[in-house]
Amino acid sequence: MAEEAVDVAATVEAVAAGEVDGAATAADGTEIGTVNFFNRTSMEGSSAKRIGSVSALFLRSVCAFFFLSSWSLSAQQTPLDSKAAVIIANVKNTGGSKVLVCDFSGPKGLTALGIELADEFTRNISREGGGAVQPIDRSKILPLLHQVGLERENADSDLQGEIAAAQLSADDFVTGKLSVEGDEVMIELDLYNVGSDRRIVSVEAPVIMYAGAEKLLNTQIHDSPQGPYPFGGTGGYSVPQCTQCPNAEFTDLAVKKKVQGTVVLMATIGAEGRVESLYVLKGLPYGMNEASLAKVRSWQFKPATDPNGTPAAVRQTIDVVFHLYLY
Length: 327
Hints:
Layout: H1 8-17, E1 42-43, E2 50-51, H2 80-93, E3 98-105, H3 112-128, E4 134-135, H4 141-147, H5 157-167, E5 172-181, E6 184-193, E7 199-208, H6 213-217, E8 241-244, H7 252-256, E9 261-269, E10 275-282, H8 288-296, E11 300-302, E12 304-305, E13 311-312, E14 314-322
Parallel strand pairs: 3-4, 3-5
Antiparallel strand pairs: 1-2, 5-6, 6-7, 8-11, 9-10, 9-14, 12-13
Helix pairs in contact: 2-3
């Protein structure tokens, strides 16, 4: 059964003010599952030895939403200020001027704290950038995700950047992963160049567990459903298990151009374990999208089950990762 959408701005303000118990409004704690498949094939007849690495990564969790909160980290100096300067310097070094900050996820999905910290980091970049580096308005991310049928919590920082950054004319994008270490929230910040899988820099920012932070951390955010079927691994639905998943192959032109990277697909996997619908969320040139679609359509799965244990159709994101090994 679909969960009711949460008004993010109202929720964060209420939790921070102590009017709402964050734990009470949190999700049921269903653990997110991940299934990875790595297959390699050596292909003959080329000066380059081609090995395609295919990864089916399910349940990327997190997405983006912009809100203005009456309570903010801006009232206190945080390590985010100095880390913003590091990100800005690296954006400049790549010749960029526009950067997109994606929602910070973890340690269990999308939370009000992750959104608050991402918003604050965007403000840090705006203040420190001096006009030379400008953050992109995060409120523009959510409509783009909805256009491709993704809910906030089902698109992690990486997928957010891959889908939205190029369309929003960003040069680079920032992802964030949260973890709790004692009385601190550790944020792992990664800067990526748009259009490639290349990570430019990675830094860590420790933030003291300030007043209200724990409630924000325990408040999971849920978007309104964007598809006819639930995502596997959420709401009591299990994750489909791949039983026959042959790897996709490089096209000759892709090898010639030395193209590698990830094609991200959105799939509906039916109650009989077959791929019923499939489309590209983030692609690669030179026929790699078509090669990925053709191969994944042939995959067979042990179907997901609903909360009653009955086989059920679910949606999943699938990564098809192409890595070119040259000898």
